[in-house]
Amino acid sequence: MVIFMTFLISLSKGRLGGMLGALAAPMLAVVMPANQVLGLLLPILLLTDVFAVALHWRKWNGRLVWLLTPGQ
């Protein structure tokens, strides 16, 4: 079940699964306690974020990033 949820998260990070990654926590919460689900998914989400940033490193539009920066 956890491997399947990891697959769903990776699909959503790769823009192939749409919002399927958002279903990972509720689906796992059906079979596990919520605090364990969050503790399990947090490292997976952090790791997928590292790979997403590495994939798009230095390929962003600086003007758009500046416009999205809060407090400017």
Provide a short characterization of the protein structure.
The protein contains 4 helices and no strands. It is mainly alpha-helical.
Secondary-structure topology with pairs:
Layout: H1 2-13, H2 24-31, H3 34-55, H4 62-68
Description:
The protein has about 70 residues and is mostly helical. It has one domain. It is about 70% helix and about 0% strand. It contains 4 helices and no strands. The protein has helices at about 1-15, 25-30, 35-55, 60-70. Helix 2 (about 25-30) packs antiparallel against helix 3 (about 35-55). It is elongated and about 45 Å long.
Strand content: under 5%
Instruction: Write down the Rg.
Output: 15 Å
What is the 3D form?
elongated
Work out the number of β strands.
0
* Terminal-residue CA separation: 43 Å
Determine the mean pLDDT. 83
Number of domains: 1
Key terms:
elongated; 72 residues; mainly alpha
